């Protein structure tokens, strides 16, 4: 199977969903005076949703089973989290995509790929255009929030965080278009990126939990500390083997915490300002990082 085709589909299956959900979180954070921002978020959500729908249609029988079973594309909770989030926000979510993703079949090595490089190239070009637009929008929001011209229910750090995730996605798609593959990165740079993302998730979770959820706040603070330590060690050490093992151990525990959190939020057992789909979203990002760590 063609590496360019498979890597592209795999990348979009994870990241196009992440981007459409970022657009939804942005949309949900705006108030009545910022209707234009809500509309722009909605438009970007729909465009990434259409991209994802197209990619899902091409992905059956193409993606390695290890990726499909990793819980980074959908989890057992995604569908319900979407339905509850749609009810709570009145923002429409195409859950048909989720249903299709749940029944995707893994790659069949003996078959020749039914998808052409031309089809993938046009998807990648479309993703690049959309990502540039989404990145510019996130930068505009962040700039205006930081000078207090705009109010949103989303933390400035969250906007900065989702901006970095979009830029990482864009860099991978651009590499696929330029070199036909995603260039190998050092273990250090991958872990620096994702350990920071994981640390920030813990900071968002602790800040969005109801103040009475003291035990969960303490646990989230503990994870933020663990990832902060990993980040400091990664900057100083030459031997990444122990650090990768520590990141794997921490992220495995974190995955359990996020799984319990997603269930608790979805089933209204945890008091918070966290949308069910945001809980599932950060769980999927941990699942994605875990797969990367296990493949090292
Ligand atoms: Fe994200
Ligand atoms: Fe994230």
Question: What this model shows, in words?
Answer:
- It is a single chain.
- By secondary structure, the protein is mostly helical.
- The chain has eleven helices and no strands.
- It has helices at residues 3-29, 35-59, 65-68, 78-89, 95-102, 117-146, 156-179, 187-208, 214-236, 240-266, 276-294.
- The mean pLDDT is 96.
- The chain folds into two domains: 1-183, Protein of unknown function DUF2935 (Ferritin), CATH 1.20.1260.120; 184-296, Ferritin.
- α8 runs antiparallel to α11 (276-294) and α10 (240-266) runs antiparallel to α11.
- The two termini are 22 Å apart.
- 75% of the residues lie in helices and 0% in strands.
- The chain is globular, with a radius of gyration of 19 Å.
- The site of one fe (ii) ion (FE2) has 6 residues, from α7, α8 and α11.
- One fe (ii) ion binds next to α1, α7 and α11.
Summarize the topology.
Blueprint: H1 3-29, H2 35-59, H3 65-68, H4 78-89, H5 95-102, H6 117-146, H7 156-179, H8 187-208, H9 214-236, H10 240-266, H11 276-294
The structure holds fe (ii) ion (2 copies).
